[in-house]
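Late entry, written up from scratch paper. The run itself happened at the end of the previous shift, but nothing got recorded in the book at the time, so transcribing now.
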Amino acid sequence: MPVSVLYVDDELPHLMLAQEYLGASGKVTLTCVSSGKEAIDALRTGKFDVIVSDYLMQDMDGIQLLKYVRANYESTPFILFTGKGKEDIVISALNSGADYYIRKGSDPVVQFSELEQRILQAYEGHHVKEELAAREQLYHSVLTVQTELFVDILPDLTIIRANDSYGALYAMPATDLIGKKFFHDISDEDRAGLVETVRSLTPENPSTDLETVVTYPDGKKSEIFWHIEGVFSSDGMVVSAK
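Output as recorded:
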C-alpha cells in the first residue's frame, strides 16, 4: 500500500510540485495543506503515515507543528523540508524529534527524489519499531503469566530478563536479579561449565538440556531440568540464551 503523507507548505508552487513529483510515483499518497492550522485539523480527522512540513509559514512554523505532533501523535515520522538551512534551525528540528531535515534545492527532480526516499525510510523505520514494541509487549505478557522458570542470559551468564517464577526461586522480584549471574550461588567450577555449555551452542546445534541442583531460601534442595536455546548473530555467534 502507498505511504500516506500529510504535506504542509504555505507556498502554492511547492504544493503543486509535490503533487506532480511525489504523487505520480505511486509509492505515496498526498494530502496537501497550506498552514499549520490546516495540518492540525487534518490530523484530527485523518490518519497519516508520515508528515512533511515546511519551516517558515505564517500561522506557525514547522518546528512548532513538530512539537504539537510529538505531544499529541508521539512517534509519527516527521520530516522538515525547507529552504532555510541555518544551523540553529537544524539543531532545533532534530532536538524536537524530527526524523529528517532536508533542504529544498533548485532541481525538483533531485529534491523530491531524495524526499521520497526519506519518506519511505521513515515509514519503514517506524513500522519496524512498532512491530518490535508489539513483540516485546507480547513477550512480556507471556513471561508474567507462565509458571515455568524462564531466564534470558548473556554468554557470560549475566541475566538480562527473567520471569516471576525464576525470581521466586530466590525469594525476590525477578527485576532484582537482572545484572546478576545465572545461578550466582553455585561454585566457580560449575559456573565455568555452564559458560562453556552456552558458548558451545551453534546455529546447527542451537539448544541443549541440563540438570542442576538448586537450594531454596528455606534450605531445601531440588533438581531442576533446564532447556537452553541460543540466540545468534548474523555471523553465527551466540549473543544470548534463554
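Helices lie at 12-21, 36-45, 62-73, 87-95, 108-145, 164-169, 188-199.
(Scratch paper discarded after transcription.)
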